[in-house]
């Protein structure tokens, strides 16, 4: 039997569809726990609090391609089952920020003398090439303040270099980052007046420096963002 981690946004209809797909594939599903619960179970199993420790509040920020989930929980001593205080999810992820950058660069392309006649339409090869360059920019901006990427064959025998800094990333994704900030504020409120709250991050979106800044702004500039979770953590949590 399999245990599959599913997004926190899955409702009865999505779960039934997954179960039907598994049955067609000849798989036996034992259960389908939500990904936030799996991450929390993994954290509690791999890094349990000592038996004589005080309970600890933790916030898990999971930002992927299409959604962001923030979970506030209380870890208890001796590996006891953690208590979930709040789980909030928004359909906002890296691909939504990439799309806002795509809109910016589509307009930018029309302003350049060499590419003013180039039409970049959604769903075309040109659009795919531009999105691929934008994704590269976003990932580079996680480590450097100014990034450049070459977009090949954007027009007929035309290669274009695009560049972006973190200010442009923040400006284009202002609405999306605002929604992430709201999730963080709700998680902070759920943690109450605890002086010490640790934050664990997972997912490609949490590598963005803008997201790090948001976490520091909401919780504390001195908050330590843990690296105890990775891409395999949800699978581990689902298995146990």
From TrEMBL:
InterPro entries: ATPase_NBD (IPR043129), Hsp_70_fam (IPR013126). Keywords: ATP-binding, Nucleotide-binding. It comes from the Eukaryota. GO terms for cellular component: cytosol; nucleus. Coiled coil: none annotated. GO terms for molecular function: ATP binding; ATP-dependent protein folding chaperone. The keyword ATP-binding applies. The keyword NADP does not apply. PANTHER family: HEAT SHOCK PROTEIN-LIKE PROTEIN, HSC70CB, ISOFORM G-RELATED. This is Uncharacterized protein. The lineage of its organism: Eukaryota, Sar, Stramenopiles, Ochrophyta, Pinguiophyceae.
